[in-house]
Design a protein that fits this description.
Oligomer: heterodimer
Number of strands of chain A: 11
Structural class of chain A: mainly beta
Structural class of chain B: mainly beta
Largest interface: A-B, 28 and 21 residues
Number of strands of chain B: 9
Shape of chain A: globular
Distance between the termini of chain B: 35 Å
Number of helices of chain A: 0
Shape of chain B: globular
Strand content of chain A: over 45%
Distance between the termini of chain A: 30 Å
Chain lengths: ~120, ~120
């Protein structure tokens, strides 16, 4: 257990539905990342927050995707009008500024299946 | 795209050293070499990182060639619990040249430790 939690762990939805995932980072970590991982591939970066500010978004993050971190603590990732291609593991990671190691701590992920 | 090349898979006998190679011939002077691993159904886990000197911690050793174009991760006494996908990543220090610190994963090396 890294201290980063994600909920739900599994989500099955029908195409066209909206889904929302939650990430709770390690409490003192000010940086939060979302990644997506499909079968047989390494994780791909989606977006990054420093405190409550969303500072970077990948081109993978289409306009159906939105992420928030309202108080600089937990974060949510919402996917609207889900498509079968959205089926993947969604990983959240957090880190603390000003450590020389700059290590990211990953949660266990939320596995999304779109039918 | 990932700036590293790794063999897709390797086997290792339990109790023996596992040596995982990584090529990063286009690495820049400000970029570090990071290693993460991902055990099945878990998020990635930080192992070690280095710039140009060899590094050792409680998990592994990292050997970086003098020209920095390749490196080797060494697990000195592999156990069955070390079976995982190992990712070699090059990345600049946080905030260098606008970097937000997101990790760019390749496909990694699937290490199978066998009894």
């Amino acid at each position: 257990d890294t201290g980063v939690s994600q909920n739900p762990r599994h989500k099955i939805t029908k195409r066209g539905q909206n889904v929302t995932f939650r990430c709770d980072p390690i409490s003192e970590h000010n940086r939060l990342y979302w990644y997506r991982q499909t079968l047989g591939q390494g994780p791909e970066f989606l977006t990054y927050f420093q405190n409550e500010a969303q500072l970077e978004k990948s081109r993978l993050l289409s306009d159906r995707f939105s992420a928030e971190r309202p108080k600089g603590s937990f974060s949510t990732l919402e996917i609207q009008r889900t498509e079968q291609g959205d089926s993947a593991m969604y990983l959240c990671a957090s880190s603390f500024e000003a450590t020389s190691r700059d290590e990211q701590f990953f949660g266990p992920g939320t596995r999304l299946t779109v039918l | 795209d990932a700036k590293t090349t790794q063999p897709p898979s390797m086997d290792c006998a339990e109790g023996r050293a596992a040596n995982l190679p990584c090529n990063h011939s286009t690495i820049s002077g400000n970029e570090y070499v990071y290693w993460y691993r991902q055990i099945h159904s878990q998020g990635p886990q930080y192992i070690i990182h280095g710039l140009k000197n060899n590094e050792t911690n409680e998990m592994a050793s990292l050997i970086i060639t003098e020209d920095r174009k390749s490196s080797t991760l060494i697990l000195p006494h592999a156990t069955l619990r070390d079976t995982a996908v190992y990712y070699c990543i090059v990345r600049p220090l946080m905030n260098y040249g606008g970097s937000q610190g997101n990790l760019i994963f390749g496909k990694g090396t699937k290490l199978s430790v066998k009894p």
